[in-house]
Amino acid sequence: MSTTSTALALPVLDLSKLDDPAGAEEFVGELRAATADYGFFYLVGHGIPIGLQREIIQVARRFFELPQQHKEQIDKINSPHYRGYSRLGGEYTRGEVDWREQIDIGAERAPLTGDAAAADWATLVGPNQWPDALPEFRTLLEEWSGALEGVAWRLLRAWLRSLGQREDLLDSAFTPANPLIKVVRYPAQSGEQSDQGVGAHKDGGVLTLLYVEPGKSGLEVEKDGEWVAAPPIDGALIVNIGEMFEVATDGYLKATNHRVVSHPGEGDRISVPYFFNPNFDATFPHWDLPAEYAARASGVSTDPLNPIHATYGHNVIKSRVRSHPDVAERHHPELIGKYNT
Length: 341
Known about the structure:
The protein is an alpha+beta fold. 29% of the residues lie in helices and 22% in strands.
């Protein structure tokens, strides 16, 4: 696949249009078209305060500036739930090293026990690891998560409406939701390490809300067989759908391949993706779409090396085992052969 330096002209959608009936109808149509044609779009008018946007980048930088031993006190290797810090080069996409460091924060819950813990994905439920040296990190991340969950719910219901479904169709699947936040630092490219910040992939869940440090680039989206740049717009979120939406619409909506590439001379960058996902035991059957949309449904993409499971939790545990084999080896070695082939 070739690479181009041309920036992708992603659609820009204004969520505040949902605040009045006329604007809501226009937004719903724009949302469906943007997702069917691109799988990605910029979102403005989302109501996330500028001050909170600045604070989330600032606290992320303070975390990554901590001495390495402080960060490694919450190393992901200590968590059977795949939560915590991953050092540079500590995560993989399709077997290749991702050149980034990050911390994963999920829903704060007690581990499952008894019969509830029988499923492979049950280990994903549990507490986070928080940095003792930076107590404000938890406060701001929980505020950020709450703000983005509100945005995600509005988008989810608008999507369902745009596809001719009941707006409350997925309420039970998302009660409770299973959000995941990754706070990521991509280091400056020295030319001596791989330029793969994160390798080409599709998100396995429902929807992603990405906030990128203003003025920093690196995200590339696959469009018509080429990799094209998708630079951030100040104050905007970058939104994309995951594979569960592709399954539910039988391929009318497509999860889009994307990656992050670090270029020499551009410095490091902070990125904060928020993944809004359902219960781990949720399944997404095919929806009955209006005839004009169903006629454009081309079926779910197939990849023998990355099959899509009907139950959301199986997709997540597959991804975690492959991305963090060291964690799986320590805590769940029985899953390695099952999901790593």
